[in-house]
Amino acid sequence: MKLYKLIKGVAETSLPNIEITGIISDTRTEVKTGELFVCIKGNTFDGHDAAAAMLEKGCVAVLTERDMGLENQIVVPNTREALPLLCAAWFGHPERELKLIGVTGTNGKTTITTVIKKVLTDFGCKVGLIGTCQNEIGDEVYPTARTTPEPYDLYELFRKMADAKCDYVVMEVSSQGLEQKRVAGCTYKVGVFTNLTQDHLDVHGTMENYYQAKKLLFGISENAIINIDDEYGRRYVKEVNCPVKTYSVNGKADFMGEDVLLSASGVKYVFCDGQGKHNVSFAMPGLFNVSNSLAVIACMETLGFSVDKTIRAFDKIQGVRGRAEIVPTGRDFTVICDYAHTPDALVNVLSAIRESAKGKVKCLFGCGGNRDRTKRAPMAAAAADNADFLIVTSDNPRNEDPQDIINDVLEGLKGKTTPYITIVDRREAIHWAVKNAEKDDIIVLAGKGHEDYQILAGGVKIHFDEREVVAEALKETE
C-alpha cells in the first residue's frame, strides 16, 4: 500500500509516496523490508528509543510523537491513537462493513456478549465475537490473548469477519483497550455498561481513572445501554452525550425486571419496557443474571429486534462456559466453575448459589500475582461472608510467591468466623475439596472459569483445566 493512502486523514508528510509493506509497533517482531514502524511508549519501554534501529533493520519510515531528527520520520500528536487508524486503512476499513456492539464493565461482559451472539445467530445473522474466552467467526473458534486485541490483531480479525460476511460483531471492550486507544476508528451501534467494581487498580491506580477509561466507550457509540443499579452507571447517564437507555432490577428504568424468582437452575421474571410486560425465563442463576439478560433484551430492542423474539431465543440458551458452570460429578454433591475474581463477583455468584443450596457452600479461590494487591483481602472477606467454608489456594501466581499472595488474602479473614484451609497448590486443593465433599455440598471453584491454564513464574503457562482436575479427583475417590 502506498504511504499517502495509508496515512490519509491520520498524518501529513513531505516524504515521497513510497510503498509500505506492513505495519509494526513491537521491536521484538522480525522486520520485513519496507515496513512502517510506529513508536509506542509503554510502561517499561519507549518505542521511540528504537526508532533509528528499526530504520537500520529495514523499516522505510517511523511514526513518532516528537522530532527524532530522523530523515524518514512522520510526527503525529498521539501514536497510540494513530496506530489503529493505520491498521484500519491497511485492512481496507473492515469496521465499516460490520455492525459493532461493545460491552464494557467489570463483571458480566462475557455472559452478555455470548448471549447476544447466540440470540443474533438464532435470528439468522452471522456474528463475530471478540472476548475474554475466545474469538469466534460464526461457528469457527479462534484463540485470544487478551479481552480486547491489540490494534493490528483487532483489524485483521475484523477483516476476516467482514470477508466471512458477518452482519454483526459483538465484543468485550476492556478499560485498558479503551485507554490505550486500541479501538480507535470503531463506531459502535450500541455500547453497553454493566457495572464497575474494584479491579485493575494496578493499571488504573484509582476507581475514578477506571471509571473514566470505561466512559470512553460512549464517545464512540451511537447508543448507550446503562445499568443504573450501579452507582457509576447513574453517573454515566448524566455525563455521556449519545442517546441513553437504562436498565434496572431494583427500580424505575427504560427496561426493568420485576417479580423475580430465583432458583439453582436459573431465573424467572417479568420484563417491562413501558410498552408491555413479558415473562422471561433465563437458564443462568442469580440476580446478576437477571441484570445480564435485561442488558441483552435492551440491546436487541435498540438494534430493532422485537422483545418477544429475543425472549423466545433465551429458551435455547443453557449457559456460558466458566460462568456458574456445573461440572458433572455423578455424585451427591455439586461442583460449579466460575470466573469470579473480584469481591463483587464472588458476592454475586456465592449469594446466588447459597439461596437455593441444601447443603454447605464451599468456595475455593485465590488471587492473581502481579495484579492489584488491594483487592485480595476484600475478596477473602466477600467469600467468608457468603460461603460456609473456604479453601484458599493459588490462581495465576505469575512472578509472585504463591504463599505471599495467600498471606495477603488471609488478612481479609481476620475477625471472620468462617472456617477455612489453605492449600497452595490449586490441583491439590481441588482434590482435597472433592475428597472431603459431603452430601448436598456445593463446591464453587472461583477465579479460573473458562481458563484452561495457569500462569507461573517467568510467564510460564501450563495446561490446567479444572474440569479435568475434578474428573481426576473423582476417579481417585471411586
Unreliable runs: none
What is the radius of gyration? 24 Å
Mean pLDDT: 93
Strand content: 15-25%
In total, how many beta strands?
A: 23
Describe the structure.
The mean pLDDT is 93. The protein is an alpha/beta fold. Helices cover 32% and strands 22% of the residues.
Task: Write the SSE topology.
Blueprint: H1 3-7, E1 22-24, E2 35-38, H2 51-57, E3 61-64, E4 73-75, H3 79-90, E5 99-104, H4 109-122, E6 127-130, E7 135-137, E8 140-142, H5 151-163, E9 168-172, H6 175-179, E10 188-193, H7 201-204, H8 207-215, E11 224-227, H9 231-239, E12 244-248, E13 255-263, E14 266-272, E15 277-282, H10 287-302, H11 307-314, E16 325-327, E17 334-338, H12 343-354, E18 361-365, H13 376-386, E19 389-392, H14 402-410, E20 420-422, H15 426-435, E21 442-446, E22 453-455, E23 461-463, H16 466-476
Parallel strand pairs: 1-2, 2-3, 3-4, 5-9, 5-10, 6-9, 10-11, 11-12, 12-13, 17-21, 18-19, 18-21, 19-20
Antiparallel strand pairs: 6-7, 7-8, 13-14, 14-15, 16-17, 22-23
Helix pairs in contact: 3-5, 4-10, 12-13, 13-14, 15-16
